[in-house]
Amino acid sequence: MTFRTLMIAAAALAAPIAVIAPAHADGGVFVGVEGSNIAVSGYDTVSYFQGDGVPVKGSADYKVNHNGAVWYFANQANADAFKANPAAYAPKYGGHCAWAMSRGALAPGDPTLYKIVDGDLYLNFNPNVQKTWLADIDGFIAKSDPAWTKIPDGKKFGD
């Protein structure tokens, strides 16, 4: 584990958090592929809502440009579903960590640490953060929703 990763992990668990500096985000759609603008680390966001709900990696063969990011999908049908209704499939808070947003901060969301709540996809930063978030999902969402509206419009992916 690098020193930077260790510092971000420590900051994510600190309370209270003033600001978490996201590794690849400026408040907009969190992109998790180093040096690129690939949303959700290349995972197919439609796949979270299908079958057994296990997310799969998308392919550059099925990509959609949306809100300044490139979204990958596993097949053309999923890409088309996303194009028809991006808000139904894009993760809340631009893919940033749902728990960190409840603290008014941005942190990277890990696409393998997720939960669908009332038809919305939420990501978390790491397993410890997710454990905390899962203990009071409704309470954290109640804090995260208004915090997300305070991120300047030009710096976030709107729902």
From TrEMBL:
Cited Pfam families: YHS
Domain YHS: 52-92
Segments passing through the bilayer: none
Keyword terms of this UniProt record: Signal
Domain of life the protein comes from: Bacteria
Cited InterPro entries: YHS_dom
Signal peptide start-end: 1-25
Identification of the protein by name: YHS domain-containing protein
Species this protein is from: Erythrobacter rubeus
Lineage, opening ranks: Bacteria, Pseudomonadati, Pseudomonadota, Alphaproteobacteria, Sphingomonadales
